[in-house]
Protein 1
Amino acid sequence: MNRMNLIQGVLCLALVFGIPAAGLTGEPLDQLKGTTDKVLSILADPALKGPGKAGERRELIRKAVDERFDWEEMARRSLARHWAQRTPEEKREFIPLFREFLERVYADKVEGYSWNKIHYEEERIDGDYAAIKVKIFTAKDQVIQVEYRTRKKGNNWMVYDLSAEGVSLVSNYRTQFNEIIVKSSYQELIKRLKAKSVQN
């Protein structure tokens, strides 16, 4: 399993099947668990089973995920220095495109990934930022370390990045996006993201 596939799988597992460890009851973790409980209930709902319900099921999952992920912050961090060079119109175009790209990449994995259990190891809060460490036990007896990075916006703790085995999701895309922009152009990146979204 290469790094990107590992991160993709971990995102799905940690988001969908979160089980808090005893004694960890901080607000960031509670809110994260609330989102995972929503997704779990959607996946377990008999009325949403079957291929004919795939579209409705994924739309409900998307809405639940949107409540917990700060797509604008993820998009900004993924573009890094190139973000400041974008016009307001380009930023408004990029954020939903980036979100749709990630959601389409992970859709099948959310519904079909094999797993065993997930255990929340530690929650660290520093002002308006918090990190939640998670240990995932896969069905193949692999143990994967994950860390959610969240920040407080109003009353909500929003995920802006996560890392699997030390590999940051945002950093991974930042490297890929920067390479495309530097070697070609920002317009080429947009073209590729749109093409990927259609393919998935």
Protein 2
Amino acid sequence: MTQMEAARKGIVTEQMRKVAEDECVDVEWLLEQVASGRVAIPCNKIHMPEPIGIGEGLRTKVNANIGTSPLHSNLDEELAKLEMCIRYGADTVMDLSTGGDLDEIRIEILRRWRKPLGTVPIYQVAKELLMERKPISAMEKEHLFEVIERQARQGVDFMTVHCGITKHALELFKRSRRIGGIVSRGGSLLAMWMVANNSENPLYEHFDRLLEIASRYDVTLSLGDGMRPGALADAGDSVQWYETSVLGELTLRAWEANVQVMIEGPGHVPMHHVEAHVKMMKALCHGAPIYLLGPLTCDVAAGYDHIAAAIGGAIAASAGADFLCYVTPAEHLRLPTPEDVRVGIIASRIAAHSADIAKGVKGALRWDEQMSRARKELDWKRMYELAMDGDRAMEYRSDMRDADKGVCSMCGQFCAVAASSAVERILIEGAKGDAISDIPAECPLIQ
């Protein structure tokens, strides 16, 4: 059985129990959420990763993309990026490799990564055609489905499949006035094949075959937004919303087959439109988990796109988005380095956590309260433990000349925390002498 089928039969799986425990939610409530499709637990029967719940009422999750390209392929470097994903708390990883031996790369990642792994199967199809010196227009439908099943058999937990790019979507695109065009790599490959062969999208036309594979391995389908806006000016156009409505139709068909679904979204969206986009996606796709790339709130942040994406991601997640795909500083420029991966993960995790506080996700605010107490106590070791990137916090403080002292170089002898603690004790306990003597020796001017 798939996780969805088990939930509909009232069976609490080991994965559901673990997610409920991790999220501090009632397992019977989670059972209902999985049965309804509002929560997905990507968990290929072969890979059996540590289960992660994605959806309404749960902590906002963060995905990190890694992978090679035809111009730059180094397995050791990708594994270094994977180590960053492990160390800095990515919830899932997507292997987007298009260069080198893709099966070898994926199997090695699966061997080391114990959480859900995602892929975009058409990338491998394009790579294998390139090896034969053939264009994407030469793709055989059978080749596409063979790759999907091969990756499922290897243990991939969720797959991005651009099923919503139909012939009608391309007609709308032809009449649109888009600035950015089709910015989805997988979407553009499928569109090129469709135009060259004057054929319907095989993933849409043969969706039942895709469902059969997904059901057999319990692969979660991440219904890709091949027509997502890649420029602010394109956000919310008819092409985008037509595709989203098709994804809503396919969501119901997937649920009928007990296949779990996530809905991918933009992209680039003006900040004041982000909330409306999320609510529209939720409505059109029947409350299925929403998975967003960003969205970036401006187009001009090259080199800092992780910040633009974190702004959009925080707004989107607070409005109901469930899953954020990180964006690194290298977005739109080149493949990310391991350090870019680190920065991208932390930026997205900040956005996700900020939204969880706004949404009232159970336990979210407690983490911040613990950090505040550690700061009040000038407990630096505890602060490093609680920080989202404790390594970076420690790096900054270790650069200070008197790092071993009780204060920082921002306030030095005028430490507000130390003075406040003394004032508090004087006011509450009336212990003037003891309070003053408790101020660190590094703060003589306060004494």
